[in-house]
Amino acid sequence: MANESVIGITVPETTAKVEADIAPQTDGEAYEIVRSKSTVFYDQYDRKAEGKKQTHYCPGCGHGLVHKLIAEALQDLGEQDNTIFVSPVGCSVFAYYYFDVGNVQVAHGRAPASASAIKRSCPGRMVISYQGDGDLAAIGTAEIVHAANRGEKITVFFVNNGIYGMTGGQMAPTTLIGQKSTTSPWGRRPSNEGYPLHMAELLATLEAPIYIERVALSDGKNIMKARRAIRKALEVQRDDAGFSFVEILSPCPTIWGKGPVEAQRWIADKIVPAFPLNVFRDHSPEPLAIKETEPPQRSVADVLGIASKDVARGVVRPELAHRFQGVKIKIAGLGGQGVLLLGQLLTEMGMREGLEVSWLPSYGPEMRSGSAHCHVCLSQEPIGSPVVSHPDVLVAMNEVSMRKFAHEIVHGGTILYNGATVPADFAAPDAQVIAIPASEIADKLGSTKVANIVMMGALLKETECLAAGTAWSVLQDKVKKLDLLELDRKALNAGRLFIDEHAHIGALDQPDGFT
Amino acid sequence: MRQLCKGNVALVKGALLAGCRGYYGYPITPASEIAEAAALYFPQVGGTFLQAESETAAINMVYGAAATGLRVMSASSGPGLSLMQEGISYLAGAELPCVIVDVMRGGPGLGNIAPEQSDYFAMVKGGGHGNYRNLVLAPASVQEMADLTILAFELADKYRNPAVVLADGFVGQMMEPLDLEYREVPQPEKPWAVKGTPETRGNLISSIFLEPDGLEDHERKMEAKYLRAQEAEPRYEMSYTEDAEVLLVGYGIVARIVHSAVEALRRQGVKAGLFRPITLWPYPSKALVKAAAHVEKVLVVELSNGQMVEDVRLALNGKVPVEFYGRGGGNVPSVKEIQEQVLGRVAAAV
């Protein structure tokens, strides 16, 4: 794109200079005429073997002019080395053949998403998303709206020519009502294809954008306006102010079937009335009305919980001789009964006692529909399947759960049931069933919420699979509120005591470190 | 030190240890804890977490961040991965390294949220358009959720290609002890990256090669690196294979259930063994051929209607009868069920 106009009109000359063409600088508005192209463009274009000074754009196409205005602005702002140009799918897919900057070519419509992440990965750099109307206003509608809504500090140049150029003239979301295209052969009919989409206005309904303007390449005066808008948008980004967007109504003479001059006139006569030129948003970033909480800054090791060399939490208690090879526990009940937590506590205890452990929950809607269960494996050996299909111990926090899972229990296993008595019609499998009124006990202690800890106390006493002392140390680490911790201590004790006093297996003599 | 950790959370911890500082994703059960852990951890260590408007946007954000040379990731489950396939094809085509996690759930369509292994075809065989491969790793434990994620970042950079951690709902949701040690992770230089600096000016990230010869050259170059990966990267684990008469093949959570079944079968006097692929692409075909050299029968177990079994059959190429047992919909076979399957098939063979 040399300095001659591609669309047959007088194009304002650039203020950009090249080294070979130094002229005395004047103050104020005056600018000098430099017959050379911006240094932001490559000297030669490798798009085609022939014609290395020419772009691939058709005569009279607006892309060349928009490219030129952007290149000149980048040069004037001194941003060439800092710029990452994101090119879309469409006629400008090959923009990287022209712009001597960092270039990323992306998928159709996704440029604002990719540009968002590029900017967040390279803060302070100039990131430009250059898109056509099919790319931005059809397939990429979600991406542009959300990038704008997040106030991404990028600049989007939206070249709107109301047609799909590269694929040969199909309807665009911005095609005018009545305008013919290969996919709207009778002209765009709102009853079938809806109305032209006004992206600048749409984005201007959002809070975050800093600058939104629509301009037109319809004549010299408007091209000057476009030039200013492009510079302004880039300045907004340079100043780290926020999201800037310029919609450029641009000619596509080839697909429109018009000469370059006629095409420009058509913009003024037909497109501008449908897409009014306006500055829809122009303000400085305002201080946030809402106070945000900044995330604390920590080291990776700290965040991962591996900062400390202290192994106390992973304590191995070799003095505890586990009497089993492995114990499989299923815990089931209603959501809110602390079913999953009880399983996690037992698993954590097992780990601290040097066992191999696993915990597997039921998850998702099942949990939210009211029931929950989890599988806990404690083993001397590495655990194969974490799925407990046949538990040694079933902790049933309610009757439904007991009835649902009792049939799975192993021969001679144990069912701990949260209830005053085992329901009379419950056909017990070949297992001992112990009814523990855990909710009642917990209620008397002060909160039904600790019924799960009552059950834990009972389970530990009854099965001796893990030490109550370990339970206490885990609770001390996990429960931060002192009053709740005290409640947990009482609940743990009460569960143990209940087994001591009521269960047919008497108190056990193995010291387990809990007082 | 040892900590009790959920698989999905361990994966994020592994990513942080690998030096990943960009996470772009969209929530979905059973992978949401990955997004939640990333949201909690990444901003605290100077990284970026962004909840995208869709998986489509998320994967293209990954594309953008990867283009700058950053270690970056996303995670989802089946339906989200379907949306990401376009972007994964672009990432592969543009030779951008990144890690993508699929915590598989039941499908097709909305399916359900219970564990399945039915995305094998989608992630291992492609899913997106064009000539490309994903490097695919299949963890079977919480520890491996972290370890294989670290490896995934290394392989992604080594081959300039997307690497996939293909987990399932169980491995993602379960808690186990996790051993992590902090160490500095060396990251390779990426002179090709676009960073908006004078040194990287003129760099181009693109997957478009309009001239037929240009695209063919590009595809051949990619194929050459895939061949290198096939030589260097297959990983697997074997137990009880030395004298095995029946070889069971399973990956992910299934491998653990099968492992328990194999031990139970051994106690019953059945010489069963387990071959567990860790890399699903490149598939450890040579090792499988060796492991199956003297067995009478191979039984592939999957939480699908039979997807990986095709790679087993390709590898063994008719040398050994390959049978299949699959469960779906979120039903997971019990140890006993697999045991019975083997006993029934061995008896049938006699």
What does this structure look like?
The complex is a heterodimer of chains A (515) and B (350). Helix content of chain A is 33%, strand content 16%. Chain A folds into two domains: 19-282, 3-Layer(aba) Sandwich (Rossmann fold); 319-502, Pyruvate-ferredoxin oxidoreductase, PFOR, domain III (Pyruvate-ferredoxin Oxidoreductase, domain 3, 3-Layer(aba) Sandwich). In chain A, helix 13 (399-405) links the parallel strand 13 and strand 14 (413-418). A seven-stranded mixed sheet of chain A has the order 2-1-3-4-8-7-9, sandwiched between helices. A six-stranded mixed sheet of chain A has the order 11-12-10-13-14-15, with helices on both faces. In chain A, strands 5-6 form a two-stranded antiparallel sheet. Chain A has 17 helices and 15 strands. Chain A is elongated, with a radius of gyration of 36 Å. Chain A has helices at 62-77, 111-121, 133-139, 141-149, 190-193, 199-203, 220-238, 253-256, 260-274, 300-303, 339-352, 365-368, 399-405, 438-445, 451-463, 468-478, 482-502, and strands at residues 83-87, 102-105, 126-132, 155-160, 163-164, 170-171, 211-216, 244-249, 278-282, 326-334, 356-361, 371-379, 393-396, 413-418, 431-436. Mean pLDDT of chain A is 88; it is low at 1-26 and 505-515. Chain A has 515 residues and is an alpha/beta fold. Chain B is an alpha/beta fold and 350 residues long. Chain B folds into two domains: 2-232, Rossmann fold; 236-349, 3-Layer(aba) Sandwich (Rossmann fold), CATH 3.40.50.920. Chain B has twelve helices and 15 strands. Chain B has helices at residues 7-17, 32-41, 55-67, 78-93, 120-124, 142-159, 169-173, 212-232, 253-267, 285-291, 308-316, 335-349, and strands at residues 2-6, 22-25, 48-51, 72-76, 98-104, 135-137, 162-168, 175-179, 204-205, 236-239, 246-249, 272-277, 279-281, 297-302, 322-326. Chain B has a seven-stranded mixed sheet, with helices on both faces. In chain B, helix 9 (253-267) links the parallel strand 11 (246-249) and strand 12. In chain B, helix 1 packs parallel to helix 6 and helix 3 (55-67) packs parallel to helix 4 (78-93). Chain B is globular and about 70 Å long. The model of chain B has no long low-confidence stretch (mean pLDDT 96). Chains A and B meet through strand 1, strand 2, helix 2, helix 4 and helix 10 of A and strand 1, helix 1, helix 3, helix 4 and helix 7 of B.
